């Protein structure tokens, strides 16, 4: 049985998520670096925000890379990550991120039968 080819739409989604994950990692690392120069509570707040951003970026990056294998668990992980991103974006703003996450979720539900 021939191996399944990864559709272009899935590749585009993975690339967009890789870019987003890398930006979150860079942002988290920047917050952690900036926290070193902050006194008191600012240090704690920036450290927590930096760690959350760093961890979230790693999760997004791993989800995006795993999507290319067309496995069901990768599909589920990417859908969950993007639904969380939709909720966070609604709460804190970011129209472009919201639109991209909605498109990703809709597309992946439309292509769900590719992931086994």
Shape: elongated
Q: Please tally the β strands and state the result.
A: 0
Mean pLDDT: 88
Q: Uncertain spans, ≥5 residues at pLDDT below 50? A: none
Structural class designation: mainly alpha
When the domains are counted, the total is 1
Quaternary structure: single chain
- Note the beta-strand portion: under 5%
Radius of gyration: 16 Å
**Major sheet attributes:** none
Quickly count the helices.
Answer: 4
Question: What is the helix fraction of residues, given as a range?
Answer: over 70%
N-to-C span = 14 Å
Element pattern in H and E: HHHH
Explain this structure.
With 116 residues, this protein is mostly helical. The chain has one domain (8-111). It has 4 helices and no strands. Helix 1 (8-35) packs antiparallel against helix 2, helix 2 packs antiparallel against helix 3 and helix 3 (72-92) packs antiparallel against helix 4 (95-110). The longest helix has 28 residues, at 8-35. The model has no long low-confidence stretch (mean pLDDT 88).
């Amino acid at each position: 049985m021939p191996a399944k080819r990864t559709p272009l739409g899935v590749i585009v989604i993975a690339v967009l998520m890789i870019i987003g994950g890398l930006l979150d990692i860079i942002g988290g690392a920047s917050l952690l670096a900036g926290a070193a120069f902050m006194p008191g509570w600012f240090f704690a707040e920036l450290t927590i925000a930096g760690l959350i951003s760093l961890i979230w970026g790693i999760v997004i990056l791993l989800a995006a890379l795993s999507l290319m294998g067309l496995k069901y668990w990768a599909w589920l992980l990417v859908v969950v990550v993007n639904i969380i991103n939709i909720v966070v974006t609604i709460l804190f703003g970011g129209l472009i991120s919201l639109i991209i996450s909605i498109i990703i979720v809709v597309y992946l539900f439309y292509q769900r039968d590719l992931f086994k």
